[in-house]
Design brief:
About 85% of the residues lie in helices and about 0% in strands. The chain has two helices and no strands. The chain is elongated.
Length: about 45
């Protein structure tokens, strides 16, 4: 049971991170800012 909860919680956190990242990228004003933000995410990953 504990293993299931840990796995479920990990998936919830992953999903929340993707939503946050997508919102951050969607907030860009132009393509150059989008590219800069995407590079930052690639470096952090």
């Amino acid at each position: 049971m504990l293993g299931y909860l840990i796995d479920w919680f990990g998936r919830v956190l992953d999903r929340a991170e993707y939503v946050r990242r997508d919102a951050y990228l969607a907030d860009c004003a132009d393509i150059s800012e989008l590219e800069r933000r995407m590079r930052c995410y690639e470096i952090d990953a």
